[in-house]
Amino acid sequence: MKMDRRGLLRAVTGAAGGAALLSAPRLAQAAAPFQNNIPPAWYRFKHGAYEVTVISDGRLPLGKPEPAFPASPPSEIRGLLEGNFLPPDEATLEQNVMVLNTGRQLILFDTGMGDSMGADGKMFGPTTGKMLNNLRAAGIQPEQIDLVVLSHAHCDHCWGLVDASGNRVFPNAQVAVTEADLKYWTDDNNKRGPAFMTAFIEGAKKNLSAYRDRMIMVKDGGEVAPGITAIFTPGHTVGHSCYAITSDNRTMVYSGDLAHHHILLLQRPRWEFSFDTDPKLSAQSRVRMLDRLATDRHEVLSYHFPWPGLGHVAKAGDGFLWVPEPMNLTG
Ligand SMILES: [Zn+2]
Questions:
Q1: Residue 94: left (phi > 0), alpha (psi -120 to 50), or beta?
Q2: Looking at the predicted structure, is the pLDDT value of residue 17 above 50?
Q3: Residue 274, exposed/middle/buried by CB under 10 A (0-12, 13-18, 19+)?
Q4: What residues have their beta carbon closer than 5 A to ion ligand 1?
Q5: How far is the CA of 20 from the centre of ligand 1 (A)?
Q6: Which residues pair with 52 in a beta bridge?
Q7: Going by C-beta distance under 8 Å and a sequence separation of 6 or more, which residues neighbour residue 16?
Q8: Rounded distance from Cα 157 to ligand 1 centre (Å)
């Protein structure tokens, strides 16, 4: 039976009821004010016997993508971004800091941008440097951190080690870093090349020197803590390292800056990235490691991929695909 609107009203309310409905008080108009704020960003899950908390340091805007991939055809960059429903004229990265609670140690992987170099010293603007607030919102205090493990010594990974006065933000923590990165990024002789090098070296010196009496030198294949093994993947920096975290026979790899963009550098893993110390070596490390991650089907936590950076790598033609893992918000 077909029924028009008036007929439906009659059927539902009856003749008298229709009049009552029309004179009923007005329903709420949902005219609530906008909140105009952003909730804290952290995400918690189990990895074997360990508890993992991902903490956001905020978004890192790279700006126009072409200068970041100087050897890549601009039309191909644009095509890949548009094809994946991303704005073609700006590339944005997340910063997914990881806290691992092994039951015996609380370990922070990278620190985010921090504010050690002052508000004007932030390399990528005011949307970064949110890690400490989000860490506290997740119920973790910086004094509780036992160990900070660095994937490498760039600004968005180690500039949160100290505050603007140079005091340690993690007063009870040791810091694990490769000797290669420690040497390179605290050496004034390397203040050449792109303009950002001087700032990178000044920032690394300020942040790392505060922990010089409590450094752990990371070795390729060596453990930084029980069950946590370094995998050297040099190129982005001379000592860049991923970390394999194994518990209950499950391995998750914290991949740091192995790949910065989940579309561009997975589908075109041989592309060169402008912030790489050695772009060709970086591409080799990326292809080798992505291949291993796909073959071994390891869970991956990627520092710069879309929040919270958790997923898997799959082989796809000549490159790879990023397959995000569904978030589980109920445990
Ligand atoms: Zn980075």
A1: beta
A2: no
A3: middle
A4: 156, 257
A5: 63
A6: 45, 100
A7: none
A8: 6
